[in-house]
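Figure 3 (text version): structure tokens given as input.
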């Protein structure tokens, strides 16, 4: 089976992990600090806090922005469930903004309409979580401008988008958000096995996220209530979690990060090859907008919904690991129970019925890609 996504691990990655195995630290230690500094520098953000996965990063990002019961959070229905679940972990209410069928990201037009309505109803969201779907950057300048008008904070779910750029600025710079979250799951752009990171330019938010990642415990006398009782002393000053990443993972991440430009270049070249070879087929290709440099996490094509199943099954039968991203979150049974129903976000639902994700990853050989293309063309005839 040709997978839709796969990690790329080389000898240097392996050596980096083995070095940590021979060192004094296995859990959060010096390799974490190096990984955080390297990611922050590569994105141009002040702070980066590594955690055990992006789901944990989203949870801590919500907590740092003081999302709680009585608050409302909005995200895109075209995402992985974790983007919406993080608000619910905090006891907040979740709602969605339908997508732009062109970019497949949260529609800025729909967002403007929804903000306007929410204001008159007194139901404005506290936090908005745009998702850079497939690695394609959202129009963050426009989203930031709108959210600012309504006093709404922003967490970017950039799980697909490390290495993406918008008008030259790296996703992760937090130029238009409070916090940006990356995932280092093996199908994503770079991997640490499991792993995630929260980036921010705000010193207080960074301090809160790092406190909550480790039980809410501090050893910093400046943060304690009363005096330190000695060198052994620590205080729990908030209810936190064990969301730490290990040094083994961080060493892998730092090694992977060095190949980020090569990963993006290869994905971009393969995406371009797909575009050329599929240009005249009865399918919709991903958009390419001037000034928006996708990380190309996914290459999604759209096929007429009445033929999608046949094309999907035909590809799988040929040994091609096509997939579908995403089942709209609001259609999940656990979301129906909250009152969401089919028809609530028609653009995301319509897109979902047509979507097929083709294989795209660093290791994908051109011959493999040509086989994907010829198989798809045959099925479309
Ligand atoms: C993968 C992913 C997540 C969750 O990442 P984990 O690191 O697996 O927790 C969240 N949001 C989106 C959009 C994702 O693709």
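Below: residues designed for each position.
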């Amino acid at each position: 089976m040709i997978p839709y996504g796969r990690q790329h691990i080389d000898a240097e990655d392996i050596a980096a992990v083995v070095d940590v195995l021979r060192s004094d630290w296995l859990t959060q230690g010096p390799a974490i600090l190096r990984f955080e500094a390297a990611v922050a520098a590569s994105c141009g953000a002040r702070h980066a806090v590594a955690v055990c996965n992006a789901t944990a990063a989203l949870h801590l990002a919500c907590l740092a922005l003081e999302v709680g019961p009585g608050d409302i959070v909005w995200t895109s229905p075209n995402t992985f469930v974790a983007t919406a679940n993080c608000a619910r972990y905090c006891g907040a209410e979740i709602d969605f903004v339908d997508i732009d069928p062109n970019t497949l990201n949260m529609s800025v037009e729909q967002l403007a309409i929804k903000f306007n309505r929410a204001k008159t109803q007194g139901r404005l969201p506290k936090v908005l979580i745009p998702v850079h779907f497939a690695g394609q950057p959202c129009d963050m300048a426009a989203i930031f401008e709108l959210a600012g008008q309504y006093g709404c904070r922003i967490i970017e779910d950039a799980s697909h988008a490390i290495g993406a750029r918008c008008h030259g600025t790296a996703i992760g710079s937090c130029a238009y958000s409070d916090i940006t979250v990356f995932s280092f799951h093996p199908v994503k752009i770079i991997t640490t096995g499991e792993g995630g990171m929260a980036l921010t330019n705000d010193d207080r938010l960074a301090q809160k996220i790092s406190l909550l990642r480790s039980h809410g415990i501090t050893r910093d006398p400046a943060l304690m209530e009363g005096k330190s009782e000695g060198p052994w002393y620590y205080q729990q000053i908030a209810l936190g979690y064990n969301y730490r990443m290990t040094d083994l993972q961080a060493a892998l991440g730092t090694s992977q990060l060095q190949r980020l430009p090569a990963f993006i270049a290869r994905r971009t070249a393969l995406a371009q090859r797909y575009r050329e070879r599929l240009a005249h087929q009865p399918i919709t290709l991903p958009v390419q907008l001037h000034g928006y440099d996708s990380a190309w996490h996914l290459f999604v094509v759209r096929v007429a919904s009445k033929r999608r199943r046949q094309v999907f099954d035909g590809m799988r039968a040929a040994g091609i690991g096509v997939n579908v991203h995403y089942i709209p979150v609001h259609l999940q049974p656990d979301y129906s129970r909250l009152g969401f129903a089919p028809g609530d976000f028609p653009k995301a639902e319509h897109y979902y019925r047509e979507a097929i994700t083709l294989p795209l990853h660093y290791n994908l050989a051109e011959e493999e890609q040509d086989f994907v293309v010829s198989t798809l063309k045959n099925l479309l005839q």
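The radius of gyration is 21 Å.
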